[in-house]
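Postdoc handover notes: sequence design on the structure in folder B. Input tokens:
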């Protein structure tokens, strides 16, 4: 039995016409002899609108109830797509996270999949050609609905593909992964291949074309991901372990921006690592994303700074108060209005001088970075939001992206 997982994102199922179009595409795959496990996102801007609605009720909506609300979006599209498929004569059935038994960690709004009971899918595939599964949602150990974080349907799809040991195709409104966001930079180049490591960095650093956790899972289980458009037949991008040998490795493969960054500075911490540990423990408990950490000792005290996303400010405040409840005299400041600009490429491992070219490009754009972090295959820096696009343009020119 040939099985494939296909995922269709919000824009691909935004209207009844598009849902019918997606149904046609799936039928074609069935006619080619495949059984298809389809993962769908909520229609269009549904998730945004549900969040807005919740905030009209409560300024900081209870996260359990928020998940209960958000999970409805995916259920709507799964049911509608199944109806469309049945009308085309395809043996199809929709299933939600409870039915598929997608188990996650407890964290509401940012849960991680821990296991999927594939027996439900396997049993159903005996009787049906297409199973339409709600993306983005899972169930935690308390039996409550959870969601996987914005863009999380990609992760639902790759996790299912990993469990079933089949390839995964992800369809959206772009026909592949580009050197940078093609909506913002129309001259960006489409990549035929990208490595897991590069895609992981790019997506974690702001490129929303894939949920970064989905790439993590694909890498772990060696699942190839094919990214393409649900609107055209254009050849897309393969996300793979290694580039094919005939392909020349670029020094820098892609660039991205993550907006809405806050720089947090905590001053006058005692010079004792237990306080740093306590801070990051509390941060971890709240599943907050902390990046660009810098630690500077001075005059017997420690000064810590890092970045977080704007939405996480209140949770971080709570975390700091808890971690430092026995400490006197510490101070924290939050500075908003920053973006994180990053370049990524496995070629950096072997090409010296990339950092110099990167900073020269920033200099030409008149931008001085505030914080810098690097790995073997990426350089990120924090820049003022209003200068970010200009800085990115300069970087794109420098590395011919
Ligand atoms: P879906 O709703 O189908 O999950 P998303 O909107 O989450 O689709 O992701 C697709 C979007 O990702 C594109 O519209 C594009 O603007 C954006 N994007 C950002 N960076 C890139 C990139 N490097 N390559 C392709 N698309 C990118
Ligand atoms: N519907 C969810 C969101 O908008 C999940 C997804 O699109 O992948 O974030
Ligand atoms: Mg997405």
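Designed sequence:
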């Amino acid at each position: 039995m040939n099985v494939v997982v296909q995922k269709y994102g919000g824009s691909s199922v935004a209207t009844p016409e598009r849902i019918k179009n997606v149904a046609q595409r799936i039928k074609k795959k069935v006619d080619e002899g495949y059984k298809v496990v389809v993962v769908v996102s909520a229609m269009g801007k549904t998730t945004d609108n549900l969040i807005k609605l919740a905030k009209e009720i409560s300024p900081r909506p209870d996260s359990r109830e928020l998940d209960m609300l958000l999970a409805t979006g995916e259920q709507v599209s799964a049911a509608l797509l199944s109806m469309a498929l049945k009308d085309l004569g395809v043996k199809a059935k929709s299933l939600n996270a409870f039915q598929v038994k997608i188990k996650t960690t407890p964290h509401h709004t940012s849960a991680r999949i821990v296991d999927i009971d594939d027996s439900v899918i396997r049993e159903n595939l005996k009787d049906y050609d297409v199973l339409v599964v709600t993306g983005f949602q899972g169930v935690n150990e308390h039996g409550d609905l959870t969601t996987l974080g914005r863009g999380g349907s990609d992760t639902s799809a790759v996790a299912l593909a990993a469990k079933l040991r089949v390839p995964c195709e992800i369809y959206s409104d772009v026909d592949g992964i580009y050197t940078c966001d093609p909506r913002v930079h129309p001259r960006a180049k489409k990549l035929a291949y990208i490595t897991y490591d590069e895609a992981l960095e790019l997506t974690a650093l702001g490129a929303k074309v894939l949920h970064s956790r989905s790439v993590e899972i694909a890498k772990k289980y060696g699942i190839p991901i094919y990214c393409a458009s649900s609107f055209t037949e254009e050849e897309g991008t393969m996300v793979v372990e290694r580039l094919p040998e005939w392909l020349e490795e670029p020094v820098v493969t892609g660039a991205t921006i993550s907006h809405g960054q806050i720089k947090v500075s905590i001053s006058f911490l005692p010079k004792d690592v237990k306080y740093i540990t306590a801070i990051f423990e509390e941060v971890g408990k709240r599943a907050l994303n902390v990046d660009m950490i810098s630690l500077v000792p001075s005059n017997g005290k420690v000064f810590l700074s890092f970045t977080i996303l704007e939405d996480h400010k209140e949770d971080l405040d709570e975390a700091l108060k808890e971690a430092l409840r026995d400490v006197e005299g510490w101070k924290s400041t939050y500075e908003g209005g920053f973006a994180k600009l990053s370049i990524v490429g496995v070629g950096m491992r072997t090409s010296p001088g990339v950092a110099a070219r990167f900073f020269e490009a920033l200099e030409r754009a008149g931008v001085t970075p505030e914080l810098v972090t690097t790995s073997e295959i990426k350089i990120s820096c924090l820049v003022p939001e209003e200068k970010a696009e200009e800085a990115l343009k300069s970087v794109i020119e420098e590395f011919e992206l």
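Context for whoever picks this up: DSSP finds twelve helices and 18 strands in the chain. Don't rerun without checking with the PI first.
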